[in-house]
UniProtKB/TrEMBL annotation:
NCBIfam families: PRK06131.1, PRK13017.1
Name the UniProt record assigns to this protein: Dihydroxy-acid dehydratase
Domain Dihydroxy-acid/6-phosphogluconate dehydratase C-terminal: residue ranges: 370-577
Molecular function per GO: dihydroxy-acid dehydratase activity; iron-sulfur cluster binding; metal ion binding
Record has Lyase as a keyword: yes
This protein's UniProt keywords: Iron, Iron-sulfur, Lyase, Metal-binding
Amino acid sequence: MSAQTRDKSKLRSRLWFDNPDNPGMTALYLERYLNYGLTREELQSGKPIIGIAQTGSDLSPCNRHHLELAQRVREGIRAAGGVAMEFPVHPIQETGKRPTASLDRNLAYLGLVEVLYGYPLDGVVLTTGCDKTTPACLMAAATVNIPAIVLSGGPMLNGWFRGERTGSGTIVWKARELLAEGKIDYEKFIELVSSSAPSVGHCNTMGTASTMNSLAEALGMSLPGCAAIPAPYRERGQIAYETGKRIVEMVWEDLKPSDILTREAFENAIVVNSAIGGSTNAPIHINAIARHIGVPLTVEDWERVGHKVPLLVNLQPAGKYLGEEYHRAGGVPAVINELMKHGLIHENALTVNGKTIGENCRGREAEDRDVIRTFDNALMQDAGFIVLKGNLFDSAIMKTSVISKEFRDRYLSNPDDPDAFEGRAIVFDGPEDYHKRIDDPALGIDEHCILFMRGAGPIGYPGAAEVVNMQAPDYLLKKGITSLPCVGDGRQSGTSGSPSILNASPEAAAGGGLALVRTGDRVRIDLRKGRADILISDEELAARRAELEKNGGYPYPPSQTPWQEIQRSMVDQLSEGMVLKPAVKYQKVSQT
Ligand code: FES
Ligand code: MG
């Protein structure tokens, strides 16, 4: 839009700072924002006021460098004729918050909605990075629907230990095995894990952070290439500046989240998630964003749209490399360019730079073909999630890109093969129960067992714990059996390579079938048919349900904080995005 057509009277911030109909309120709104040196000219001459939603702090090391990047964002905003106003977002540090950081996603969402709605902001830069900061910001931008643009913080530099890449999160699973097997001691354990975090930035693996930032870009909500630039690289500061410049133009163009976050954009995100080997947390967060912008999207869409897509990105935990190689190979635009060659992307989906995703990504050939593969040389075919259901739950998902080749060949690849996985259930009620009993020889766990984790969903363990991927008992580890199939109503870390069936909905605490399974039950998991069932009669199942209800339902521990209680009283299930149910009806609130 040319400068001549810029209509200052349309700016939201005019209502606060230049409203002749209400001089009293205007003066009150204005005087306090003058008190640190802003001039009346800056606030009253029709410059867009741009919020910088700051997710970095000392409590949030993954996002902490946004405190410095914000300076470049401000310079970009200023250069484009806007005024920057930075403000804090409730911190969410994946590795710091007890009982789990995902409890705070909806709290940060609520807080950000109030800020975006209630203050004189014409547009906002969303600083994202660590796992839940990205969905929290996008959910709030979706609800309020003012022009918004994502600035990722970028991943840390690659971790190295004795000449090998150590990926954040992923190394913890490996180091735990080494510790359990007695191959390293506690000192070496800490040293090994710390080697994976050599700089500022978020996890350098394709965990939930790199996934969600890649998907924010695939949705069209960040500038092309933004997701993958490592946090300390010069390009990170440069794109912070460009992002600041661009949001001012977006305000003049009135380019809002509802113009970008369409059904097509969400399907693009699902396809990209399969190709990057993205986290199992993605369906929860992406479905939540869709609900807040009002686009229908179900957990079944993840299999329907995403399962047939091959794995193209060779990053840990599904592959070999880390964030620096991902960026050098071309990042998200190179992945989308590959997918476009096979007609898998809705190329007309609009993005924050005013161009379509097709225009942004066409011809962005990958610079390293071992890191970002072609379809002919994909790391795996059919790499998207599959969705299961049965008498255990209405839906649960499985990340097929981390299943071993043997397991895949036997239970998944040939659609005509009747073979399904059957095993004996070992049931744990929450992570504490698991830690207490996993090594108990009385359980008799062997390689024919399936481990169950329940009481770990949004209500049972407020926020839903990342605990479904359970390690086998020490005595099996020592025999070289490192993973058993796991099923649960909680989540799994995006950095885990475990082939678990997770996000089961409804959870045990909401009356799901997991509440009825008992240790010793035979359980059948048919990946080809998408079924997961306890092998007991309908009568026995009904009797167990009647007993559960007589006892007042599946028990879970009391809340420890007010927010835990509030969230538990109104949270939806993982398949529905774990959103706050009463929040969903509030859409486009900036127009109200
Ligand atoms: Fe923050 Fe992984 S812990 S991104
Ligand atoms: Mg995590």
